[in-house]
Structure prediction request, 545 residues.
Amino acid sequence: MIRFEQVSVVYDGAPGPAIRDVELTVPEGELCLLVGPSGVGKSTLLGAVSGLVPHFTGGTLRGRVTVAGRDTRTHKPRELADAVGTVGQDPLAHFVTDTVEDELAYGMESLGLAPDVMRRRVEETLDLLGLAELRDRPIASLSGGQRQRVAIGSVLTPHPRVLVLDEPTSALDPGSAEEVLAVLQRLVHDLGTTVLMAEHRLERVVQYADQVVLLPAPGEPPVSGTPAEIMAVSPVHPPVVGLGRLAGWSPVPLSVRDARRRAGDLRARLADRAPESTPPGKGPTPPTPEAAVVGSASGLSVRRGRIAALRGVDLSVRSGETVALMGRNGAGKSTLLGALVGLHAPTSGTARVGDLAPHRSSPRDLIRRVGLVPQEPRDLLYADTVAAECAAADEDAGAEPGTCRGLVTGLLPDVPDATHPRDLSEGQRLALALALILTARPPLILLDEPTRGLDYAAKSRLVDILRDLAADGHAIVLATHDVELAAELAHRVVILADGEVVADGPTAEVVLASPSFAPQVAKVLSTSPWLTLTQVREALEATPE
Prediction:
């Protein structure tokens, strides 16, 4: 169905090819997963399937890519639209219409399908992706995760033979991600749809793949094989694979179920021990009750149009504390962060950062008290180069020249100063936006889905930076669907549902009580209070064989 023959792509002005000598075949009715660090060319490879590379992105494509027998060099994206459906990393760039139902129908209208067929498929897709309650909603009013589901739905309705998905679950809560993956499984197994997917959150998807293709480094040829073969050697792998490697299991497990069946001996080795650090991995100690409150909400309610986004939320965050906001898509996490930086005025109750009411304060006053990295990092990026963005951030924050650049280097090494922000991957743009906010070192740092688009190595570097900031007294609030990040980093977890706080407590206490928000290690070692691979490694290293 998809065939790459000695394919290389070189962009004008780039020091080397984005992808080199790709030989790949994806048969009909298989799910093929692309893995690898940020910036290795996964999005370029996906774009070559849909024809966006090189017809839309530019550059030079050598070799041959065929999809359903069509050569993408001679068929432009519109000539492949009936066979290939594509969802990129940024759902907003995908939308054409204003409402959910119209967006689901648009692709079929373009292909000239009959109205009764269109109506039936729209209803099927609304049910498949849990969008029925949102059918009349303006797309602009949806949460990031809801937009992601609409974007996926809009390419499903024309029933393409090939689906190309770039980070399809990155903005979804665990439940919604499972629903989307279940839909993809049905398409693959029941309809014979071919799916080519790039995803950093391998803990969600690797067990469903028929084939895994590893892109080890920029410009290096890919390595392909079964999921077990690639995960045994891949530098990027989910926690359950890391646990299998640590325990010496062969083949490595790909799912929690596989690992749990083999974990008896490991549980026995850990039976007399308890995690030594909270949060795990030699993280900072929790703040004392005497620590200053740097951000708070009291009885906070916010309406966004007809929607009651927050209802009577009480929350306080102290200096040195890291709090993870969790909950399903549309629960109010982003709205709460927005209220703390003045983007949303309270309908009732109060929001405060330090001694300021955010919605009544000027940006100049707020910048040194609170900083927000939004879900769409491009909203913070205006300059033509990375160097110019960093220089402007240093000036705005009154920081020493080079401060921002040092943060960028710490998160994503080897990004040249002259790179235009639009040429960065989604994960790289997020890292740059985070560096811009951190340059001012505000006491309260807010991050909305900070690991979206980040590979495991970049996420590890982000965790180290945030731990150092917390150790220096900064308070950090993360709105995240990444349960592994919350387990690794947060002192507290606050779960929102329909705009209300339904749980608020120490991380281990909250996530172990919730199957939806428990990390993989906790699910495998379910009778013990272990949350992360780091905790298990520390315990085994301290325990004689």
Observations:
- Residues 280-284 have pLDDT under 50 and may be disordered.
- The two ends are 50 Å apart (CA to CA).
